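User: Structure please.
Assistant: Input sequence and predicted structure:
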Amino acid sequence: QVQLVESGGGLVQPGGSLRLSCAASRNILSFNDMGWYRQAPGKQRELVAATTRGGFTNYADSVKGRFTISRDNAKNTVYLQMNSLKPEDTAVYYCNANRLADTFWGEGTLVTVSS
């Protein structure tokens, strides 16, 4: 069984920054891709950013230029650097990993952007 553990969420003022981490219980190179999703109250879960084993990345239009996804294969960890945060970025952020037909999720970390 794969475990994904998120950390780094919290309360931040608009314009501030946070870095989320997702630590995997296995070699992340075994996954086809990994990513970050978020779910705001009353809304559907949406893709924020993703990275493939080969290093390709893609982002939701709403976060392009502000968020950066990266990975440290040696630490089996994926990061999400979030800059210029806005109140509408408030959500629970989930780490996701995919391998063949299997999808794995973390339990989420709450990000609140408020003054």
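DSSP finds no helices and eleven strands in the chain.
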